[in-house]
């Protein structure tokens, strides 16, 4: 899972952006090919009077191969405007909060497993799991950017307070 990946935040953002771009490109390619095939099959089956009812934009669609669609995508056919510094900061803060919340969930699950354990042989392994989850949460909390930490809002304050309280709870248990 990318949220628990130890790589720096910027590298994870780049990986996530590449994965998202590849997924969107593949979906767009499939959609364009499907649209072309549907229009071509309709033109082959429909009588001429009904074909005239199809909008001209769709009537003139040429069946495109996935390679053609890929080439158009690479040429900037689906180009997005760049993010502003403020949008980038908001996006980074949202990702950091999501990672922090995921780390909190990980610690809670590890604690629940430890507390619900009835097998003495598993206790040491479960304690290691709790320590690992705690360390991951502590890293996420310490790695939060100054911009995210400086945001004065209920979600940020609640998430950081919950994380700090959970760290104190874990330190008391282990």
Describe this protein's structure.
With 174 residues, this protein is mainly α. Helix content is 75%, strand content 0%. It has helices spanning 9-45, 48-51, 56-59, 66-74, 85-115, 123-142, 146-150, 154-173. It is elongated. The chain starts with 8 loop residues before the first helix and ends with a helix. The mean pLDDT is 80.
Assembly context of the chains? single chain
Q: What string, H for helix and E for strand, traces the elements in order?
A: HHHHHHHH
Query: What proportion of the residues is helical, as a percent range?
Result: over 70%
Q: Would you tell me the overall average pLDDT?
A: 80
Q: Strand-residue fraction?
A: under 5%
The major pleated sheet works out as:
none
The assigned structural class equals mainly alpha
Count of helices?
8
Principal-axes geometry comes out as: elongated
Measured between the Cα atoms of the first and last residue, the distance is 26 Å
Number of strands: 0
Low-pLDDT regions: none
Rg over CA atoms, rounded to whole Å, is 25 Å
């Amino acid at each position: 899972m990318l949220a628990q990946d130890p790589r720096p935040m910027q590298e994870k953002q780049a990986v996530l952006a590449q994965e998202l771009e590849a997924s969107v490109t593949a979906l767009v390619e499939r959609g364009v090919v499907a649209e072309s095939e549907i229009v071509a099959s309709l033109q082959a089956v429909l009588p001429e009077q009904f074909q005239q009812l199809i909008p001209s934009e769709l009537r003139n669609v040429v069946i495109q191969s996935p390679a053609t669609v890929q080439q158009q995508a690479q040429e900037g056919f689906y180009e997005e405007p760049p993010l502003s510094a403020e949008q980038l900061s908001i996006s980074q803060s949202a990702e950091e909060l999501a990672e922090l919340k995921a780390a909190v969930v990980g610690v809670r699950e590890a604690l629940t497993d430890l507390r619900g354990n009835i097998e003495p042989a598993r206790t040491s392994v479960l304690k290691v799991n709790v320590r690992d989850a705690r360390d991951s949460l502590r890293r996420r909390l310490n790695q939060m950017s100054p911009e995210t930490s400086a945001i004065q809002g209920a979600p940020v304050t609640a998430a950081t307070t919950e994380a700090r309280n959970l760290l104190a709870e874990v330190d008391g248990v282990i």
